[in-house]
Amino acid sequence: MTDSATMSVTGRLVPEPVLAPTPILELRDLHASYGAIEVLHGMDMIVPAGGIFAVLGPNGAGKSTMLRVVAGLHAPSGGSVLLGGRDVVRARPDELARRGVCLIPEGRGVFPNLTVEENLRLIGHLGASMSEIEQRTYEQFPRLAERRKQLAGTMSGGEQQMLALARAVATKPGLLLIDELSMGLAPKIVETLYELVAQIAQDGVTVVAVEQFARTILGIASSAVVVTTGRIVMAGGPHEVESELSGLYLGDTGA
Amino acid sequence: MQDLLAYTIFGLVTASIYAIAASGLVVTYTTSGVFNLAHGAIGMFGAFIYWQLRFSWGWPAWIALLLVVFVLSPIFGCGLEKALMRNLTDATEATKLAVTIGVLVALVGAATWIWDPNLSRPFAAFYQGNKVDILGVPVTWDQLITVGIGALCAVGLRVLLYRTRIGLDMRAVVDDRALVLLNGGRPDRASMFSWAIGSMLASLAGILIAPYIQLSVVPLTLLVVNAYAAAVIGKLRSLPLTFLGAAIIGLLQSYAVGYLPTSTVQWMQHVPDTIPILVLFVALLVLPHQRLRGHTGRRGRESFPVPTYKMALIGSAVVVGLACALAPLLSTQPLFSMSSGLGLGIVGLSLVPLLGYGGQISLCQMTFAGIGAVVYAHATGGGSPLGLVVAFVVAAAVGALTALPAIRLRGLYLALATAALAEFCDTFVFGLSSVTVFGHHIPLFGNGTLPAARLQVPFVDVSNDRVYLVVLAVIFCAIGFGIVALRRSRHGRVLLAMRESPAACAMLGLRLTTVKLAVFSLSAGIAGVGGALLAGLSTQVAPDQFSFFQSLPLLLLMMAGGVGMVSGAFFGALALGLFSTLGTMSSLFSRGSSLLPGLVGIGLGSQPNGVASDIGAGLSALVRRRGAQVPAVETDVVTEGWDEQCIEWEFLGMDGRISRREQQILDDSLGLKVG
Amino acid sequence: MSALLEFREVSVVYGGVTAVDKVSMSAEAGQIHGLIGPNGAGKSTLFNVASGLVQPRQGTVLLEGADITAMGSYKRARLRMARTFQQLELFGVLSVYDNVLTAAEIRRSWARDHSDSKADALQALERTGLAEMAQERSDRLPTGLARLLEVARALATRPKVLLLDEPAAGLNEQETRTLGKLLIGLADDGLAIVLVEHDMDLVMQICSVVTVLNLGKVLLTAAPDDVRKDQAVLSAYLGSAEVNV
Q1: ipTM > 0.90, yes or no
Q2: What digits encode the pLDDT tens for the residues B52-71?
Q3: How many domains does chain A have?
Q4: C238 contacts chain A (CB < 8 A)
């Protein structure tokens, strides 16, 4: 069987743009709870390698929890998470990170009291050389080059998210998980950020993005799912999903 | 002018030592989140080991120094982190502090056990006798070396944190622990490294300061309170501010020695010693404090059942019965030990409403007890029960007075403020022979010890020690009963509510200040009564009976007994009595008498509820087993049954599940979203 | 009816970021006022300003016409404002009943009347449907019920103004419906209720007015039906579709 995303000899998740069907990420009947409360009630989801996969749905639906489970931050109470065909439910987050799964958590992707440069330097955990990282990053994100000596926390919200993206990209991830990149940002800035995300995806990184700005993300997504109350209620192409959106967010008829 | 220069130089020497100690505290606290109250004890231990190598075995100074500072201390720090501190992330502030106090007390116990405190140990400074002349002021080499090492530490820490990889990791962990984990980093390694650095700096400070004060265990250990002041000025975060704080304290202290009339005005004698403590107190008070906000800190794992009057009656009967049965049997020494254990147990009871119900940490209960003892000794000629009332009232008033400024502090800062108060009383107030307030002359300890009459009870011969044990037991039970009644009343519920959520209480219209003030005075009053009864036991009062250090084992044993329950205080009392009895049996035990409470305190990390609730749960389980079926406790189903699926990953080295500690950090900082 | 609670041009700044920007809104007696908006819009911050946990940089907060902007939290509560917390702030070690009883007792201590705290507590439990689990320890409740308990505890202080922060999160449909009925009943009793909630069906059904916040600013204050039709609101929730790839 040929995998479209396989574990290479070194164990890193490497995307291989081939035709075969094994998805880069697959959730099978995933259950997760916090204490006695179940948040994910059996979630099935298939993310093909390549492209941007949008996860939509109202607050509290369990989207963030799903990402946390995938990144190894939260142990599921049932079901499995397959990365390139292998079950990873017991893997530690730092090990998953070293193997190419990168999560940008909601609203806190940077170290505010470290400079831009130091934020990038921290990636050294993953074995990349610093000069290479810096060179590549500043090429791709020229705005950050201007601010390399500045504390990350003093930059604007958009620039901070840009740094978070840059750091994520520099780890050369196979699978990039993004949680609410747009949180608290003005629409113009969100658009710029998602242009960057689209570029990252074009370079061969599979992106799973949880996003409340549904229209924005659907403009660049290759497929999408809608999650409500811990279950996937709709899956399909971006256009199919978009037509159903307003009802999902602002409620059905007011009867 | 010459004088000024000389005092400045000496001030800088002290400042360097404080700076070294305080920067170690700050590095450890910011990186690992545990404020190490045992920092001074580590320094003390380091100094003793250095003495052993250098002066007892005659090793060359530099080998001894390198071995202690660069080998033994980091190993000890790493061990401490791995064995204890790593598991404390989800503990309450009180438990964290208790564990470090446990380490402190255990180290003190171990040191007095190994090195007989009755021998004098000369501790020569580096290159003793060598001097240079700076602008006409003779300066010893040792002083120059100390200032040099201080400067070196400042530069070294700066380089470490800003120029090295591990330093970057440490700063990243301070910033956002969860994100480090998500980046593939290991926050635990940074924590461990910070403990190693902290221990090194502590030892270094201990070795440098030892020539200036005598090499004795407790003073060396508690000298770190002076470093707390510098660390608090640095808001426990900023190293440059910490160094600045150390400079201020060192210089102030040195100028006070030089320019205050300490030798001519008798009460001024100890004022210079109190300066760092006063600075600490002031810094705590003027520091911008956190506004009350929702979701402050972690909810504790500690939980205690609501006591019933029936249980309180049975318990009282058991305690009094035990006292009656033991009183005729025990010989003089064990009888005294058990009696003093019970007396201390009454002081310990004061922690039940304060810490157990209200969640307020206090490290100065023995100080309140001391105030009660002094008042009792002076107020009653013949041991009238009225003396207890006066002791209660005065101690409560002092408690309220000290709580008033400290009331807006919480958790760690409150603990530090109470430690400062206790140290202030030790070094200054208890050393005075009398104080004059608004023209009223109030005698204190006079010239060391103070005679105190024993409590007179009608129809009973209290001069008999055996009878006094029973009297103590009855009073213990009476106070315990009052505390049970408090817990069952609306005031008890309010205290628990305040501990659980101050923000919610405020939003229900509760004025937190009033409640805190009330519980502080009540607690101080009870401690005062305990002190008065202890004074009556030995019929004399000495200040060292009520020192800061005495509060620590008491706190530990009360927490180990279960500070949320009256029965916990009884177990604490029993343990204190037993440990002290052991102490009278062999001189070896008596020297290491604080080792046992220390070890008990260390154990609190894994068992924060204390034994009383466990015993209680065990008993009630026994009762229930005979009756109805006990419903099964919910088990952790998350991990079971996953092993087979993980085999492939284990080959790739991905077998380690995320630890509970890491999970806690992540849940905390990522914001647990349930919905 | 006049406004019981009123925000006038309130701004809150956190370390250079304006979380709430000149927000004005008012809650009237007998009304349920919905407060909605995407994540990070500033809803909870506004609640914290109302309850005194956050000081606004600018603007005033009025309770029954009196300026309470600088007043301590406990004094506001004594002017009969109560709130619930999104991140639960229950008295975990106390039972459900004791949580509510403590609230009623605290109220009696500052109101200095001779009301029966136990009766108040029981009434609050019955209204919220929690009477059955009165003896349960509150930290063992599932979140949905724990949120209801927050409501019950607030009710036990007999408030005039009630601020609810996502009370329906974690409730099932049946429970949500019960909550909706309860809130309507409370409004009929004359309470002014401000409701932050993500369950739009609930908001649209029970609120008489809805204010939409976005990026710290008021986007719109209107009747529920008008809010639903508003294009600006829709883009606030869904974003724009103008990413150039």
Answers
A1: yes
A2: 999 999 999 999 999 999 99
A3: 1
A4: yes
